[in-house]
Each structure stands twice: as structure tokens, then as C-alpha cells.
Amino acid sequence: MREATSREIKEIARRHLVAHGAAGVSLRAIAREMGMTAPGLYRYFASLHDLLDSLRADLFTELTDAVAAAQAALPEDDTDGRVLAALRAVRAWALGNRAEFTLLFGPAVTDTGPEEDSPAAVAGQRFAAAFVSLFDRLLAEGRFAPPPAEPEASAELRAQLDAFAACTGFTGDHASDAATRFMLRSWVRFYGLVCMEVFRHLGFVADDLGALFEAELRDLVTGLGVVYRAP
Amino acid sequence: MREATSREIKEIARRHLVAHGAAGVSLRAIAREMGMTAPGLYRYFASLHDLLDSLRADLFTELTDAVAAAQAALPEDDTDGRVLAALRAVRAWALGNRAEFTLLFGPAVTDTGPEEDSPAAVAGQRFAAAFVSLFDRLLAEGRFAPPPAEPEASAELRAQLDAFAACTGFTGDHASDAATRFMLRSWVRFYGLVCMEVFRHLGFVADDLGALFEAELRDLVTGLGVVYRAP
DNA sequence: TAAGCTTAGTTAACGCTGGTAACCACCGGT
DNA sequence: ACCGGTGGTTACCAGCGTTAACTAAGCTTA
């Protein structure tokens, strides 16, 4: 009952998101489409910001599920295939859901930084955990040796890496400063690759940058000890 | 006279941009601050979108100037230093002007894609040209050999690379498909690095990710035949 | 069965937004 | 003395998030 209405609201909100961007999601328009008035929506969400945050949480789990589904088709022990499938699943979801990806990974709309305990934040951490576990698996299999930290690595950097590891749950037996650092580097690189394509900053090139993506992916996973395989 | 008013409008708009984000720039608030009424601003800009586009153009040239200024302090023949200084200048400007960087390099606010002939677009191309010329210089000096294209490189990819080269003005004697591809890959990687930091998706780590940036920068420029040098 | 509380929704209102139309006052040129 | 353009104004439209006050059900409990 109540849950169904809540879902319908988010469903309509998502349609407006893809149609007009994040700024085009309005309570009044949603209410109008539902045959309601805007204040009625406040029975379900404390504010527009809360609605969007809840929507973000849903989208994070949808993306996480897509990543899991892509891996489910492969045998359990096919680590190479799972890594490639997971990364490709992220790109595919991002391209198929540009507005949603922007909401999740675009610039933080609030200047207060991301809230620690919001539903979207915890869903985002579960998404991150999926890739952390894959990275941990590569480490466990001894696929590669993370480049040792330079001697001039400051204590400040070390503290930052510890915070990152703690936040993403990268605290297994194979965790180390060097490993954390390499995981972060790999993720940053992949993030930029997808962002560039989704944000259309390469729009003058073409709509489908699949070939470039695959070339970068090959380079990226090779550094992680994964043998590349064409899609 | 008229030019001065136009500049004042954009100046105030920029203040509102950094204070409340791109969505917080409103004609009425600007007019109020100027002791005017909102419709008066339409004598200077056809719409809010036009104002933001003009502001984008200004910011692109400001960033381009910052990159040039960083290089100006170095001797003319110090290619390594110039490359490092230029890339560091982009990061420094981005961190010092987060909201402005987001406006330039964040997700495209319009769903119609970037307009071809808007003032911001041409200013953006001049910004790109600064790095294209640096890349061309590295090629001219034979600093590195761009990795040869895989045999399975499709004709589609080739066409995309040609479009990219034409759009960025990368048409010198040293231009080739392999070179264009490597330039694009390098830029995408750098873009992701800066975006991740500016968009605060690593906010849980720390505010200053300088050490991580330098580590990535070292890896990146080394691949371009530039000998790394600490800042 | 009647009283009372909770829930889901309403209307009315405040103050804000971008944008348009009509109008006005000034200032330079003929 | 008149005329046109420039730089503004007021009045208005439609839309926005949010709050306050209220109403109509439905369920609980004495």
C-alpha cells in the first residue's frame, strides 16, 4: 500500500530525471502525474532532496545488481571473465542510463559533501564492495604485485589510504597500503573513462566509443593481472 | 559602458555559482544585487542559458591563461617542465574553482548535446589546443612511440579518431591514428583523475589528494616520454 | 456504540524562479 | 522640434519547494 505509492513516486521521478535532468524533477509535476497535489507527497518523503536521495539508493542497488547479474552468467572460478564482465556491466548501465549515472557519479549537488548515513551512501558503499571483493580476489590469486609505495610517501597519504580502505571494507588479509593505493588508482582511471563518455565530452567523436573503451579496458585489466578477452 | 555592465553581471553570476552551484544562479538574484530588475538583464543576455554559456567561455579562457602562465615561468626548451606545469595548473585551477570546473567539465546540462558554435565551445577548443600543441611537441621530439593500433581496429574507430583530430586541431606532421588514439587516452585518464577529486567522490579519503595525484601524474607522463620531476 | 487518534490527502498561502509584453525616459542625430 | 534606439521599468504568466491549517476517512479503545 504505502510502499507501492512510494515506489510509484520514485518511478515517475526517474522518468522526469531521464527526460529533463536532475534539475527537472519537481514534486508538483510528479503529483500532477499521479492525480495528487504536491503537499501530499510530503507524507512519503520529507523533501525533494530526500526523494532524490532515496532514488539514488535505488539506482545504486540496481547498478550493483546489474554487475552481479553480468558475473552470474560466468563460471565461479573464471576470475578474468568476472572482472571484465563487471567493468563492462558498469559501462553498459551507465550508457543505457545516462541521467541516472550522472545522478550517482556526477558532481555532488550539495556543497555540504556527501552525507555519511544517507540511504544512498550505504547503497553506494555496497556497490563499491562488489569491486573491492573482486580486487581482493585478484590479490588472493596473486595475479599481480601492487607497485611498492615510493619512499617519500608521506604519513598523510598513508592515513588517507587507511581511511579509504576502512570505508570501502578493504580490510582482508591481502590489504596493504600499496594494494589500497593501486586499487584506488585503478578505480579512478576506470571512473574517468566512463565519465568522459557519459558526460558527452567526447561527443564530437561519436556516440559509441566502444572501441576506445575496450582498448583502455585491456590496458587497465592487464595491469591487474587479468588476461584480456574480447567481449 | 555596456561591456562593463556585462562583465559585472557575469562577475556576480560567478559568485552565485560558487556559492550555490550552477542551479543557484538566478537572473533575479543577480539583478537584485545590482539594484536592477530581472527583465533589465535581458538587454545584455538573451536568456539565463546564454549568460551561463558566456560565463563558461570566460572560464575556459581563464583556465587556458592559467595553463599558459604556469608554463611561462619555465625556459622555452624545458619540455618536461612545461608538460608537468600545464597538467598541474589544470588541477590547481580545478581545485581552487570547483564550481567553475564543474560548469566546464561536468555533465552537460542540456540534453541537446554541446552546441557547435557557442562561445563556450570555441573557448573550449582553444583550451584543448594548448594541450594538443604540447602533445605534438612531445611527438616532434620523439619522446615516445605511440602504441600501434591493434589489427582489429575497425574503420569506425579510425573515423572517430579522425573526427577528434580535426576538432582539436591535431593535424600536424606527426599526427597519426596511433598518435591521436594515445593522446585521447592520456587526456581521458587525466580528466578522470581531476574529476574524481573535484566531484568529491573521494571525499571520505581527504580534502587534499595531492600525493595520489602526483603518483598518477608520474605514471601518466612517464608513458608520454616525459621525465617526472617533483613539484 | 461513541470518543479519540492516526493517516492520507486537501486548499491556501509565502516567496522564489525564468520569461514576455507593454511602457517610459533619456540621449544623439537630423 | 522630432524621431529612433538604448536601457531600463512595472505588470503579469506559469511554475517551483515548502509550510500551516484543515478535512475525511479508518482504526482503536473505553
What does this structure look like?
The structure is a homodimer of 231-residue chains. The first copy, chain A, has 231 residues and is mainly alpha-helical. The first copy, chain A, folds into two domains: 1-45, Arc Repressor Mutant, subunit A; 56-223, Tetracycline Repressor, domain 2. Helix content of chain A is 65%, strand content 0%. In chain A, helix 4 (79-96) packs across helix 5 (98-105). The longest helix of chain A is centred in the first third of the chain and has 25 residues, at 48-72. The radius of gyration of chain A is 20 Å and the shape is globular. The model of chain A has no long low-confidence stretch (mean pLDDT 91). Chains A and B meet through helix 7, helix 8 and helix 9 of A and helix 8, helix 9 and helix 10 of B. Chain A binds a DNA duplex (30 and 30 nucleotides) through helix 2.
Largest interface: A-B, 51 and 51 residues
Count of structural domains of chain A = 2
* Category from helices, strands and their pairing of chain A: mainly alpha
Can you tell me the CATH architecture of the largest domain in chain A?
Answer: Orthogonal Bundle
Distance between the termini of chain A: 43 Å
Largest sheet of chain A: none
